[in-house]
Amino acid sequence: MKVEFAPLNIPLARRLQTAAVLQWVLSFLLLAQVCIGIIVILIIHNYWFLYVPYMTWLYFDWRTPEQGGRRSNWVRSWTVWRYFKDYFPIHLIKTWDLDPSHNYIFGFHPHGVLVAGAFGNFCTNYSDFEQLFPGFTAYLHVLPFWFRCPLFREYLMSSGPVSVSKKSVSHVLSKEGGGNISVIVLGGAEESLDAHPGKFTLFIRQRKGFVKIALTHGASLVPVFSFGENELFKQVNNPEGSWLRTVQERLQKIMGFALPLFHARGIFQYNFGLMPYRKPIHTVVGRPIPVHQTLHPTTEQIEELHHAYMEELKKLFEAHKRKYGIPEHETLIFK
């Protein structure tokens, strides 16, 4: 295979975009382990005056990711995030006006490998979110595991993510006067194992907890589809039933997060590496589904709303797929 190298006369802006995405990828792959390693080293060498105050503070701060987190407007405004957004680039498209006096749940699809579209649109100040949805605050819900990593949790929370636990979602949706949006990547870790280019497989048939929470709080459901999310990386072939998929699924059940074996391009060449491809991401926010508050929803009510959500998600995909280069015969596959 002929290796295709990057040209030497790349504009400075593109170099900065590559650097921005590289630090983002490495932060998710390595930063948590590095932070844990720092704490271990401090303990081994008995730097108690450093780790004891932090661990004490961590004990009292443990529930913060379930109580709205601790976002930093300064961190969200780092210039690196502008270059990150422009690398792909990432676009946010609104199709319907939302009422800022209500709270909403955005169901984000698909998960992709690293959820670049969700992070770029809802965790930085360089997306068009504030212009498109004035009066709203978006909270991206991620796995609780990441908030158990000392030091790394502070970095993660500073961009705005919070836990995806039931308590966390309920806290966001309980705001009086509305204006809050819970962004939940409904397919979760399991869906990332099916994040192959050209595939549109969504793990949603058994995901009904978000529907129950929506009913309990009277929060409208909004389907969101991020076109291009699955095109950023390739994965080692892992069809269901293969030994690789079996190992991945078992590890996912044990650890709570999946380990897709992904690859794309490198920094100085385009054939292989962990850098995502420069593929545009168009995150389309669909029509809200009104939800009447029901403190004790029945199974029938949950099933009815869940079915309505899947139908609205399917309509959103069909209405916009041709704009973003998806063939007419392609459809969503619900699992």
Automatic annotation (TrEMBL):
<dbReference type="GO" id="GO:0004144">
    <property type="term" value="F:diacylglycerol O-acyltransferase activity"/>
</dbReference>
<dbReference type="GO" id="GO:0006651">
    <property type="term" value="P:diacylglycerol biosynthetic process"/>
</dbReference>
<keyword id="KW-0319">Glycerol metabolism</keyword>
<protein>
    <recommendedName>
        <fullName>Acyltransferase</fullName>
        <ecNumber>2.3.1.-</ecNumber>
    </recommendedName>
</protein>
<comment type="pathway">
    <text>Lipid metabolism.</text>
</comment>
<keyword id="KW-1133">Transmembrane helix</keyword>
<dbReference type="GO" id="GO:0019432">
    <property type="term" value="P:triglyceride biosynthetic process"/>
</dbReference>
<comment type="similarity">
    <text>Belongs to the diacylglycerol acyltransferase family.</text>
</comment>
<feature type="transmembrane region" description="Helical">
    <location>
        <begin position="21"/>
        <end position="48"/>
    </location>
</feature>
<dbReference type="GO" id="GO:0003846">
    <property type="term" value="F:2-acylglycerol O-acyltransferase activity"/>
</dbReference>
<dbReference type="GO" id="GO:0005789">
    <property type="term" value="C:endoplasmic reticulum membrane"/>
</dbReference>
<keyword id="KW-0012">Acyltransferase</keyword>
<dbReference type="InterPro" id="IPR007130">
    <property type="entry name" value="DAGAT"/>
</dbReference>
<keyword id="KW-0325">Glycoprotein</keyword>
<keyword id="KW-0444">Lipid biosynthesis</keyword>
<dbReference type="Pfam" id="PF03982">
    <property type="entry name" value="DAGAT"/>
</dbReference>
<dbReference type="GO" id="GO:0006071">
    <property type="term" value="P:glycerol metabolic process"/>
</dbReference>
<keyword id="KW-0808">Transferase</keyword>
<keyword id="KW-0472">Membrane</keyword>
<keyword id="KW-0256">Endoplasmic reticulum</keyword>
<comment type="pathway">
    <text>Glycerolipid metabolism; triacylglycerol biosynthesis.</text>
</comment>
<keyword id="KW-0812">Transmembrane</keyword>
<keyword id="KW-0443">Lipid metabolism</keyword>
